[in-house]
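Query structure, 472 tokens:
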């Protein structure tokens, strides 16, 4: 099922397009302003965007490039009230798939959508065939994790610096290793720099190494991490923990890809690809001047966000099975079954420590269960069991089991008032557009709208609309 976003300030058009999309079996959402629409595109994954040109907060054509710049860009179909060959050309040049003119008929939209979705499908299957991406032990099949893996796969074919963002324990390092293992650099090293333990006194010697005799006790020369990553990948784990002084050191080596070992006489080169990871909000740190903006820009040519486990509970069962089997093998004990109540309890928990916490919980449960054949909720830590019981009671209460339903106290206007309000807004917008398209010609407006002259004049008067389409 494809996901389609409609961006149009006319709610009726949005609703009509969403209906059409749903009729052909896809999912639709809409935004009434350009700003909201662009935010939705940046935050979500859409296959197609139906984009209106004239929006109250800007011109759709100007947002095209932003929309097409996301990691998995949606195809964009421009919808416009007034056809203009120059804008159409500009739209196509900026990456639009198609350019269609109002009035819109369901048939017109369905035809265009089917064409673009067919094209997307053929693209996906050919790239899937062409690419044998190795998951490197990453378990889970939720759509959120798969999106993230798609981004890793795309990044592994390029050489840009990547930053992986996500809460602690979500698998950032595992994903960085997977990216490296799928890249052209896989025959070379993946070198981890633990930025949290990189003190200012250690930063230079750890990164750049030193020559023999460079300082007291340096009885041998030592290669630094940057040189070790030559040809491979340098992974800056917890990059948000770098002090400002260490950030300065990094910035230089990123700019030059060369450095001087302590006590060295000349610069040494290293061709590494940089991947960094952090659970911190680096954007905010930049605003608060805790992180250098110039360094941040260099780190994040490609940004990949790993979703927390609570947003992909579908992965829990696969992860639990995988961890349990591995642990049983490691402890040389027979494999264990997983009971439904064990899983149920895990689903009720929010996993602040994400996959790492899940692993620890499963490991503890496997030990506690000793030689029992099945993992049950009794083998789980008390805090998780309490959480599960609480959330199941809350669910029962929310679904109103055994009591009369509690209607939420939401204020709704009377039906007629609500309906008439929408109708008036829709009529007013329609007439404004109508007069704009017909360039003030009543004859043309009657032809397009199929309204009689008298009726049209009456409506224009009612909504105070002049023949040029502007409210007087
Ligand atoms: N999808 C997954 N499949 C299998 N194992 C996973 C998955 N995600 C994470 N793990 C495991 O969970 C543990 C934590 O993962 P990792 O260290 O990569 O997380 P992280 O986000 O880098 O954590 P931190 O921010 O604390 O450094 C590791 O043992 C890793 O192998």
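Result returned for the query:
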């Amino acid at each position: 099922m494809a996901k389609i976003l409609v961006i149009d300030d006319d709610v009726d058009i949005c609703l009509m397009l969403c209906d059409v999309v749903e009729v052909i079996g896809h999912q639709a959402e809409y935004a009434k302003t350009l700003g909201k629409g662009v935010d939705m595109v940046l935050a979500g994954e859409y296959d197609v965007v139906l984009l209106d040109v004239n929006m109250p907060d800007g011109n759709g054509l100007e947002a095209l490039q932003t929309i097409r710049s996301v990691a998995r860009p949606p195809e964009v179909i421009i919808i416009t009230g007034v056809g203009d060959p120059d804008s159409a050309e500009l739209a196509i040049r900026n990456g639009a798939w198609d350019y269609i003119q109002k009035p819109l008929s369901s048939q017109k939209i369905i035809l265009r959508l089917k064409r673009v979705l067919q094209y997307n499908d053929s693209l996906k299957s050919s790239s899937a065939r062409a690419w044998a991406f190795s998951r490197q032990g990453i378990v889970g099949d939720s759509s959120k994790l798969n999106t993230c893996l798609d981004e890793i796969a795309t990044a592994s074919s390029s050489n840009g610096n990547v930053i992986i963002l996500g809460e602690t324990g979500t698998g950032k390092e595992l994903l960085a290793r997977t990216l490296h293992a799928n890249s052209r650099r896989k025959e070379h090293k993946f070198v981890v720099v633990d930025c949290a333990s990189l003190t200012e006194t250690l930063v230079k010697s750890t990164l750049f190494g030193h020559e023999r005799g460079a300082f007291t006790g340096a009885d041998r020369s030592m290669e630094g991490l940057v040189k070790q990553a030559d040809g491979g990948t340098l992974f800056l784990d917890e990059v948000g923990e770098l002090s400002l002084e260490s950030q300065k050191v990094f910035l230089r080596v990123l700019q030059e890809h060369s450095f001087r070992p302590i006590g060295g006489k000349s610069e040494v080169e290293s061709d590494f690809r940089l991947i960094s990871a952090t659970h911190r909000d680096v954007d905010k740190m930049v605003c608060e001047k805790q992180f250098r903006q110039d360094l941040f820009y260099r780190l994040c040519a490609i940004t990949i966000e790993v979703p927390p486990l609570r947003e992909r509970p579908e992965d829990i069962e696969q992860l639990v099975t995988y961890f349990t089997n591995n642990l049983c093998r490691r402890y040389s004990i027979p494999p264990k079954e997983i009971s439904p109540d064990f899983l149920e309890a895990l689903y009720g928990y929010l996993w602040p420590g994400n996959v790492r916490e899940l692993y620890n919980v499963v490991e503890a449960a496997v030990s506690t269960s000793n030689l029992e054949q099945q993992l049950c909720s009794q083998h789980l830590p008390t805090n998780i069991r309490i959480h599960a019981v609480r959330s199941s009671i809350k669910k029962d209460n929310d679904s109103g089991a055994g009591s009369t339903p509690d209607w939420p106290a939401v204020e709704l206007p009377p039906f007629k008032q609500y309906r008439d309000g929408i109708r008036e807004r829709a009529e007013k917008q329609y007439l404004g557009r109508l007069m704009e398209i017909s360039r003030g010609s009543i004859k043309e407006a009657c032809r397009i709208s199929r309204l009689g002259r008298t009726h049209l004049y009456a409506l224009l008067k009612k909504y105070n609309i002049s023949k040029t389409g502007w409210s007087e």
